[in-house]
Amino acid sequence: xxxxxxxxxxxxxxxxxxxxxxxxxxxxxxxxxxxxxxxxxxxxxxxxxxxxxxxxxxxxxxxxxxxxxxxxxxxxxxxxxxxxxxxxxxxxxxxxxxxxxxxxxxxxxxxxxxxxxxxxxxxxxx
Length: 126
Fold this sequence. Notes:
The chain has helices spanning 3-15, 19-26, 50-63, and strands at residues 27-36, 45-48, 64-76, 82-93, 96-109, 112-120. It has one domain (3-120): Nuclear Transport Factor 2, Chain: A (Roll), CATH 3.10.450. It contains 3 helices and 6 strands, in the order H-H-E-E-H-E-E-E-E. The protein has a 6-stranded mixed sheet with strand order 2-1-6-5-4-3. The termini are far apart. The relative contact order is 0.23. It is α+β, with helices and mostly antiparallel strands.
């Protein structure tokens, strides 16, 4: 599968709330996941390997209550190895309800996601 096809399937599964299926079906065993913080002083967080990425997803599900998620995309070029997805979340995290927006930049090789980088919307006050 090319990036466009992987992206379409990813958005289909994300919209349906089927993250575990997406991990099983679309992610490479050696996937790298990076969460870049909007705070310029914060170091990005990085997970390597499918098991570590599964644990990241499990942690999020254990600490956050997601009330709604809107998934938009994928944005992809023809024949490119990347796609982008925009997420708008309404979630309660650490006792506080928040509206969050981020994009995921996904790199595809051999029909699987090999890297994902999540970038949050930067606030002018940060």
